[in-house]
């Protein structure tokens, strides 16, 4: 015979069973399943973060070492320049004591500025200006370039003298790769006032620091950081602007042309104009164009 439960007994039994189930569910640990894609992503992010941190620390150490190296090179360049100046003075004094005179060494470097446009130019003239990097998009009026002196360039220069003005720099050693990798173009206008035997290094240094930008990967890049120079010329041991200046302040960037012009750009300098060689009268020219 099956015993029947009263309504009160049924309620009590259901409450007891529900409480037992609740206790069992609370006692069990809830396990969350994480997808494999999420685990892989977290692992990849951790690796990237670690690699980025290591790269930052390595770059920081490299920058510290580069600053020390640049400082040592600048001091070395300053000593070399001072030694050359003292040697030049000593040689002049010795020559004077012997009743003679000292002849300065021939220049190995040339700085050329274009002063006339393209109207009515012979095709040979246009080609020579192009070879001298003074023609086309980067060869407008008042552009200037540093070139290494050789017979071929001097022959071309004599053919285009009415279109340019130029002067010689003091001789320094200049590696051939310097002219192939980077070149400096300086744009400016000028007047003729100041005389000095050779252009002062201060003038060229100010010109590069103020007006220069690099041509890297066929793009014009402002020289706001030595890292740009190191990226382009680091394999040749040139890592900063002072290295460029030491290598005769050449091979680099292009300068922005200032406003202004020349008075008599169609006449030779020796005739009271602006064209041709003005070797002794150039520092004020560069100072004004800078």
- The CATH superfamily of the domain at 109-289 is known as Ribosomal protein L30/L7
The ordered string of helix (H) and strand (E) elements is: HHEHEHEHEHEEHHEH
Provide the structure class.
alpha+beta
> How is the biggest beta sheet arranged?
5 strands, mixed
- Total E-strand runs: 7
Overall body shape: elongated
**Cα distance spanning the termini:** 118 Å
- So what's the CATH class of the domain at 109-289? Alpha Beta
Q: In percent, how helical is the residue content?
A: 40-55%
Structure in words:
The protein is 48% helix and 11% strand. By secondary structure, it is an alpha+beta fold. It has a domain at 109-289: Ribosomal Protein L30, Chain: A (2-Layer Sandwich).
Show the helix and strand layout.
Blueprint: H1 7-27, H2 36-97, E1 109-114, H3 123-131, E2 143-148, H4 151-159, E3 164-169, H5 177-181, E4 185-187, H6 201-211, E5 213-216, E6 219-222, H7 226-233, H8 241-246, E7 276-277, H9 283-289
Parallel strand pairs: 3-7
Antiparallel strand pairs: 1-2, 1-3, 2-4, 5-6
Keywords:
290 residues; alpha+beta; Ribosomal Protein L30, Chain: A; 5-stranded mixed beta sheet; two-stranded antiparallel sheet; 9 helices; elongated
């Amino acid at each position: 015979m099956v015993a029947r439960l009263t309504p009160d007994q049924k309620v009590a039994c259901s409450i007891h069973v529900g409480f037992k189930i609740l206790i069992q569910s609370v006692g069990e640990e809830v396990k969350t399943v994480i997808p494999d894609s999420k685990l892989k992503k977290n692992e990849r992010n951790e690796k990237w973060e670690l690699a980025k941190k290591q790269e930052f620390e390595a770059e920081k150490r490299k920058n510290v070492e580069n600053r020390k190296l640049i400082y040592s090179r600048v001091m070395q360049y300053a000593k070399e320049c001072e030694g050359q100046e003292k040697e030049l003075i000593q040689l002049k004094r010795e020559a004077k004591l012997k009743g003679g005179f000292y002849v300065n060494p021939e220049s190995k470097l040339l700085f050329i500025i274009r002063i006339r446009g393209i109207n009515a130019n012979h095709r040979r003239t246009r080609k020579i200006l192009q070879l001298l990097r003074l023609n086309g998009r980067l060869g407008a009026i008042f552009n200037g370039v540093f070139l290494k002196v050789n017979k071929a360039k001097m022959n071309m220069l004599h053919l285009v003298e009415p279109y340019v003005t130029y002067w010689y720099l003091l001789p320094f050693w200049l590696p051939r790769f310097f002219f192939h990798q980077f070149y400096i173009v300086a744009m400016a206008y000028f007047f003729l006032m100041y005389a000095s035997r050779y252009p002062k290094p201060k003038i060229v240094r100010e010109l590069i620091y103020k007006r220069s930008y690099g041509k890297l990967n066929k793009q014009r890049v402002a020289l706001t950081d030595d890292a740009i120079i190191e990226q382009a010329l680091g394999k040749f041991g040139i890592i900063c602007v002072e290295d460029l200046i030491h290598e005769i302040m050449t091979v680099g960037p292009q300068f922005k042309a200032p406003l202004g012009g020349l008075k008599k750009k169609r006449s030779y300098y020796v005739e009271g104009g602006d064209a041709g060689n003005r070797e002794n009268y150039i520092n004020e020219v560069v100072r004004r164009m800078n």
